[in-house]
Design a protein that fits this description.
Blueprint: H1 2-32, H2 41-48, E1 53-63, H3 64-75, E2 79-81, H4 83-88, E3 96-105, H5 106-118, E4 127-132, E5 135-140, H6 141-144, E6 149-154, E7 164-166, E8 177-178, E9 187-188, H7 191-201, E10 216-220, E11 223-228, H8 230-244
Parallel strand pairs: 2-5
Antiparallel strand pairs: 1-3, 4-5, 6-11, 7-8, 8-9, 10-11
């Protein structure tokens, strides 16, 4: 029995050392290379080709459906149009598109096409697009709202009060901007002013407060709670980042 016990100890000791070494190595690797977070929607859009520069595009009253097909062929990009969903919202996929652009990103071309398509159904936008799995889909806005996301934004650095400098805004938003000659960040008056600025500059037609489908924004102290689609969250983050790091004039 004594000999058997000695042999078992001799076996388990190296095994225990190996296990401990693996555990330490795993812990070090976890700290050095933490789990990757979700891919930003802007990167998903870039992967689908929305940042690709289009040398020239010209549509002379091309039907919407044909314009999208020609754009996909010209740019070698996967662009689809969900005809059934659009017709379900009374969108005519044969509405004429007239457009001439030079040297702009593909996203700018699609934004202009969608702007023209929505001009037939004011005041609420019904046509939008999304990017996923390398494909750009032109579809009805109600399809884009299937999985809205709610996020919280700490804006304490953007709503601190300082002596006023500017009392008007080119965006048309109500509010007062504060700061010195070289503000960093660019301070917006209060939480309500910042909320209005976001609703004016990021998809104005989708916010519930303005008669839109589902977009919601609430202010609690210096925190914003926003429910929006992933692409609009990216646009909000870009806007807030621009306020935090204004370009020098």
């Amino acid at each position: 029995m004594i000999i058997r016990g000695v042999m078992m100890k001799a076996f388990f000791k190296p095994a225990a050392l190996i296990f401990a070494g693996c555990a330490i190595g795993f812990a070090v690797a976890w700290q050095v290379a933490p789990r990757a977070g979700p891919v930003p929607y802007r990167q998903i859009e870039a992967d689908a080709g929305l940042d690709r520069i289009v040398d020239r595009v010209e549509f002379r009253d091309e039907p919407l459906e044909e314009a999208i097909a020609k754009l996909a062929e010209q740019t070698h990009t996967n662009i689809t149009i969900t005809r059934r969903e659009l017709e379900g919202e009374s969108v005519d996929v044969k509405m004429p598109i007239r457009l001439t652009l030079h040297g702009v990103p593909l996203r700018s071309v699609i934004d202009e096409i969608i702007r023209q398509a929505n001009a037939f159904r004011p005041p609420i936008a019904v046509v939008g697009y999304e990017a996923s799995d390398g494909i750009i889909r032109i579809t009805a806005c109600n399809q884009l709202w299937r999985q809205p996301v709610t996020r919280m934004y700490d804006v304490s650095d953007l709503v601190l009060r300082r002596p006023p400098m500017v009392t008007t805004s080119t965006s048309g938003a109500s509010g007062v901007l504060f700061g010195n000659a070289a503000p960093s960040p660019q301070i917006v008056g209060d939480i309500d002013d910042l909320m209005r600025l976001i609703m004016n500059l990021v998809e104005p037609d989708v916010w519930r407060d303005d008669g839109g489908p589902q977009g919601a924004i609430y202010g609690f102290g210096t925190t914003l709670v926003i429910t929006q689609t992933p692409p609009n969250h990216d646009r909000i983050a870009t806007l807030l980042n621009g306020l935090r790091h204004p370009k020098e004039q």
